[in-house]
Design goal:
By secondary structure, this protein is an alpha/beta fold. The protein has a single domain, classed as DNA polymerase III subunit chi (Rossmann fold). It is 31% helix and 24% strand. It contains four helices and seven strands, in the order E-H-E-H-E-E-E-E-H-E-H. A seven-stranded parallel beta sheet has the order 3-4-2-5-6-1-7, with helices on both faces. Helix 1 packs across helix 2. It is globular. The N and C termini lie close together (7 Å). 27% of the residues are buried.
Length: 153
């Protein structure tokens, strides 16, 4: 069963949260896909993963059409296409819930700092909650970062 984590985001610093979450998965030997809605956002995430923490290194790559054989553990895509499967999906921008079944873990955000984003987050939460086969958990970032992911999931 796919575990979906809705992480509360009370400030508009999603890119930093994404880096923290990707590092958590990477440190626990999980492969990760990051989805962004456009190439500009993909570039921002790519740049931030290189510079957000001076003592951190997360091998990653922004996916292009030429990347059929890439073996990076973290891939960033703006079209939802990846050259290989991964265990976790981190949503910088939303994707339809039917995509989630391809992953063990999916991270989405409940963006509570903006009224329209609250409405959009609630819609996504309800869809995931009502989709059979998805295990949904609303969680704070700190609690998520303290989780240990077992190999039996």
């Amino acid at each position: 069963m796919t575990s979906i984590f809705f992480i509360e985001l009370s400030i508009s610093n999603k890119i930093r949260y994404v880096c923290d979450i990707v590092e958590k998965f990477y440190d626990q030997n999980r492969t990760v896909h990051i989805f962004t809605k456009d190439k500009q956002s993909a570039r921002l995430v790519d740049q931030m993963l290189w510079s957000w923490k001076p003592n951190s290194f997360i091998p990653h790559k922004q996916v292009t059409e030429e990347d059929a054989d890439t073996d990076e553990p973290v891939l960033i895509s703006s079209d939802g296409e990846w050259p290989q499967p991964a265990q976790a999906l981190v949503l910088f921008d939303p994707l339809p819930a039917d995509v989630f079944f391809n992953y063990e873990y999916v991270v989405d955000f409940a963006e509570t700092y903006d009224p329209q984003k609250v409405v959009d987050s609630r819609k996504r939460f309800r869809i995931v909650r009502d989709t059979e086969g998805l295990n949904l958990e609303y969680i704070q970032l700190g609690a998520f970062l303290n989780k240990t992911f077992s190999d039996s999931t």
